[in-house]
Structure formats: structure tokens, C-alpha cells
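Hi there,

I know you've been waiting on this one. I reran it after we fixed the sequence typo, so this is the corrected version. Both the input and the resulting structure follow.
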Amino acid sequence: MVVVRGNHGITLQLGLRISGAVLLAVSAGIHLDLYLTGYRKIPTIGWLFLLQVIVGFVLTIAALVTRSRLAAAASAALALSTLAAYLLAVWIGLFGFKEIRTRAGLAAGLIEVAAFATLALAAVTAESMRRVAAPVVAAPVAASGSAFAGVFTRAPAGAPAGSAVAASAGASADTGALAGAGPGRRARARAQSAMSVVVGGVSAVSVAALALLGVAVVSAGGSPLAAADVGATLKTVKIDGVDVLTNADGLTLYWFVPDTATSSKCFGSCAIYWPPVSGSPSAGPGVTGKLGTIKRPGGGLQATYDGHPLYTYIGDRGPGQANGNDLDLNGGFWYDIRVTR
């Protein structure tokens, strides 16, 4: 059974609210970074990321400056719903977008589990303290009746005058106190029992969320669907009246300004958002530039076009999209490969 009393309960509740608010702010900060470094141009997903950032920071402020259990509960719900959206995107896709495994996504998931547990407990302790602190009023009628009954009680022989009344008044006071204490204890017991049940539920949900996150991380692929097959034939697609180089699936190809003709500067997390085109490609109809390859920093070959290492973009989910064009992300600008005839 969980017992929250006095100043200890106030301190615990304050610590939970502050810790939960900080965790929620960190989660919102990670999503802001993801939004600015590539997700903002993904259809639907981009504005959902921005919405989560705005709501996350608003609820952070609300949880810090108010003692409202509603603000804490809403913050916990936001953390859990954000985690649920991430898991859906990893497993089956969300709004046509399938998430891939990244350190940022895993970190955000763990933080969201912790934020949910902390803020849910903050909301529970706030409600429990309100119930326990509620005053219990003894029934005045019973006390008054006992007092009046005491007037007619005979005092023992030799007792001082008025002692019977005094004894009766004292007895009635004790009776009133006991009458008030009984409901008070029962109310506290009920509140503590309910709080124990809710805390157990929060713990169960948190453990389940961690388990699902672990399954998602293990099952998620490390390579996005946009990566080109080794030896794929490159072709061109007209986007907004311009001939743009694409891979065999029609996904737009990009070049990175910091790259050189012999080396790629995009690796690590950058290569997750901008998957390199692997292998030695061949030229399809309309491809007029010079094709070649370079060695990747971690090994393997990457295709090049006119001296530019080639990449796809995680934000393009089908042919005819060029959401990565003219973006300043991951240390430099990205541009689509335009083909001149």
C-alpha cells in the first residue's frame, strides 16, 4: 500500500511534477531537432512532429507552474500517445511513412516511458492528497444530543456541583471525536487503496511500453526502404517540369554540398536520413552524366553522378517527390540531381 502524508507527500508530488515536466521537455526537444533535421518535409508526419513539440512545451510549463492534476494527466497522456505513434510508425507505418531505427528515436522512446510514469504518478498523488486532506466534519446533532442528555445525569454522591454536566460534556466530546475519526480513517484507507491500484496500473503500463519498445527496436530494420539495390539502373523523372535523376524505384537522388568527388561526408545518423545509393549503377534512358563509385567510410561502394555521391531521402515515400531538395541539414545543403539533355 502507498501512503502519502503531510510534508513528505507534498515534497514527493512536487518532485514528480518537476521530474516529469523536465522529461517531457527533453522529449519535445528531441522531436524539435528531428523536425528541423529532416522530418519537417515528410507529408503529414512533419506537422505532427511540430504539433507534438508545441503541445509538449505548453504542457511542460503547465505542469511546472500549476498543481493541477489535469495538467499532469494530460502531459502523461501526451507522452504515452507519442510513444504509441512511434511504435506504429516502426511496425506498420503511419500516414504512409515507415520509421527506421535511430538512436534519437530510441532515446525519445525511453524518455517518453519515463515521462508517462512520472507524470501519471504526479496526477495520482495530487488526487490522493486532495482526498486525504479533505476535512471530516462530525455530526453535530449526535454531539448536541449527548450534551443535553448529560444535564439529566445524576452525579455520584459527594461529587462537586456540576461534575455530572462536566463528565457528560467530556464524554460527548470523546464520542464526537471518535465519530469524526472513524470516517476520516476510512476515507484515508479508501484513498490509499485506490492510489495503490492506480500506481500498480501505471507500473504495468510502463513495463508493457518498455517491452513493446524493445520489440520495436529489435524488429525494426536498420536500412530504410529508400536505399537503392546494388547495380540498379538509374533513370530520370520529371518533377515540376525538371528532369531529375532517380533510382530504379523512381525515388529522387540527391547530392550533398560538403562531399567531394572521392569521399562522402555523410555517415552515422546522417546516412540514416540520407541513405547512400550503394553499388555500381548503370545508366538508363535519359541519364547523360558520368557514373562512378567511391568507397564509403565504413566500407562498400557508393554510386556517383558527375562526381557527386548519390543519396535518397527518408522523407520521399514515392516517385515524383523531392522533399529533400534545398534543405540545410546534417551539416550542409542538399540538392536533387538535375539531368541536362
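Quick highlight: The chain has two domains: 6-136+168-219, 233-336.

Best,
R. S.
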